[in-house]
Amino acid sequence: MSDHEIEVHDGQAGRPMDNPGLEKHHPRPTDVDPQMEKRAERQVATLFGLATLLTLGFCVAYFAVPLDASFLGWQANNLALGLTIGLALLFIGMGLIHWSRTLMNDHDIAEDRHPIASTPAARESSLAALSEGGSDSGIGRRPMIRNSLLGALGVLGLPAIVALRDLGTMPAGRPSRTVWEKGMRVVNDVTGAPIKVSDIEIGQLINAEPDVLVENEEDDPDGEENLEGHDLLNAKGKAAVIVVRIDPAKINARKARQNWGIDGVLCYSKICTHVGCPISLYEQTTHHLLCPCHQSTFDLAKDGEVIFGPAARALPQLPLAVDDEGYLIAQRDFEEPVGPSFWERGGEEDRSA
Asked: Could you count the other beta carbons within 10 Å of the beta carbon of residue 293?
């Protein structure tokens, strides 16, 4: 309302109308009939109780309904989860509306217009009205409704906890090894061609991967099984590596790793140990490898140790050898887990080892 507008008064300045046009108040059936009041209270509690059961049903369906099951052409698992949590929220809403329309105090309130900035007295009045509203709701004297509502809202947290399973396995359950094994060739990840030492120049970096995929003793105890499709891509992603060649005179490897390279050719995991970004930004003159995500920097001439950034541990190094045909092969798998540092680990390893 602008400064030039005035409120509607009954003819006397400063006095608002006693009745701005409110209809005569008619009591509700639940206001005059105790039996109907009790029935409405039971209906509200029933709605909240059904919401509780449906929420628990969500948790059961999450584990009990197979992902590949179908119902009338619908994906059964998604259908069960959607119906249970959707109906649970619907019944909570219906219960709250039924409660407010049939059981909470029913009276009309008229409020005069006032400046936008409330006075201290108005703020105190608002707090008093809020307190009065809580009293009017009857939540303190209707334990059936209160307890059923609290139960329905309380179990709503369970679906969120249960659904955390979709984020993947816990870190402790992740495999600590890759598909690399003794004698497996290192190949170019684009062409698939095996790599010879003579193919690599000093200062060059090659993105590479394993050539042959893993023996799966659980699925095929009598032989080897080649992975395909998604499993194949997943295995290659975890085993991705970079191959670099550095002047041997500039390599400062610890004693235990002095035979992990061939004529200055070294191999490291391509996965950053901070949050798992793929890295291949290489500075030839400094032998530093830079992660593009958060600028973690690793010194490849010094066992891949961290020299800058948030990464907590060095890049895992793959020990190399050469086969009878002169191609690079792995001596064995990485000695430590590749990828983000979700394992509990100490500080940098002792370089004197």
From this structure: 15
